[in-house]
Amino acid sequence: MKVDFVFAIGMLANMSSKQKIVKPKAAPEAAAKEGERIAKRLARAGLCSRREAERWITAGRVKVDDKILETPACVVTAKSKIEVDGKPLGRAEPTKLWRYHKPKGLLTTNSDPEGRTTIYERLPDTLPRVLSVGRLDLNTEGLLLLTNDGDLARHLELPSTGWRRRYRVRVHGSVDEKALARLADGVKIEGISYGAIEATLDTTQRGNSWLSLSLKEGKNREIRRVMEHLNLQVTRLIRLSYGPFQLGELARGDVAAVPKRILKDQLGSHAARFGLTETEGDAKGQKSKRPQARKQSRR
Q1: 234 and 115 co-located in one domain
Q2: Tell me, what CATH number does 40's domain have?
Q3: Hey, which of 6, 75, 246, 268 has its CA 20 to 30 A from 57?
Q4: 257 part of a folded domain
Q5: CA-CA distance, 62 to 26, in Å (whole number)?
Q6: What is the per-residue pLDDT across 185-232, written as a single tens digit (0 to 9) for each?
C-alpha cells in the first residue's frame, strides 16, 4: 500500500506590533476575472487547505503587496506579491489528477480521532498536497481520484457531470434478481431517497454472489445500505471506475498520473477553467510506488 503527500508548512513568524494591518480594497471586476481568491492561491501553492489559509490570514501571517491581510476577501493576480510568514509564496502548481488504488482498511480523511490509518499516511512522498474526489469508506477498495485542485475535486463530485461510478460487489445472502431490477427506479430507505442503480447478478456460489452495480450519485454508504435493504450483507466492495477513469491494472496502493491531455479532453468546455489549455510536457502514465507506512499524516 502506498500513499503519502508532502506539503510545505510555514512556521509562524513573529509579527511586529508596529506593522499596520490593512484591509484589502475591493478588487475591480476585471481583476476578479483574471485573478483568484487568496485562500485558493495559498492552497494551490501546496501549503495548506483553503480553510487553513483563512485561519492563517486571520492570524496575520499573510501579506499581499507588503500589507498584512486580516480577511480572506482578497483577490490576487499573477502580479501580486504574496508572503507567508515573511517568505515569498511559491508558484501555483498546475491542476493535476491522479488515479489511486485505495486498499481496504484506510480512511479517506485528513485525520482520525481514533488513530486509524488514513490514505494520506500511505501516499508517495513524490505527490504534492492532494484532495480526494469524493470518498471511499474504510472497507471499500478500488479507484479513488486525487487532485491538487479543490475546485476540480468539487466539479468532478457533482452529479450534474453525469459520470457513473461502477462497482463489483460480493454479497452474502439470497439474491432476488427482480428486486435488483427495481433498483433502476430508485429506492427510499428510512426517509433517504437513493437514485437509480443499475444492478446485475454475475455469479453465485455457496450463498455468496458477485454483483455489478452502476450509479451516479454515490451517497454515504449508499451501496451497503441498499444491499442491507435487500437483506444482503456486503462482504467486499470494489470501485472499478469513476466516469471515464478506470482502475484497470493499477496495483493495490499504487498511484498513477492522469495525462493532462486526457483530463483536458474529459473536461471538455470546462478545461480552460482549470488552466488546462496546453498539453505540452504531459506526464505519460507515470506511476508512484507505495512507500512504507508512516506514523503521521502529512496532509
Answers
A1: yes
A2: 3.10.290.10
A3: 6
A4: no
A5: 17
A6: 999 999 999 999 999 999 999 999 999 999 998 788 999 999 999 999
Q: How many residues does the chain have?
A: 299
Same domain, residue pair 106 and 27: no
Q: What is the C-alpha separation between 176 and 8, in angstroms, rounded?
A: 53
CB 294 within 8 A of CB 4: yes
pTM for this predicted structure: 0.75
137 part of the active site: yes
Active-site option among 4, 112, 137, 149 = 137
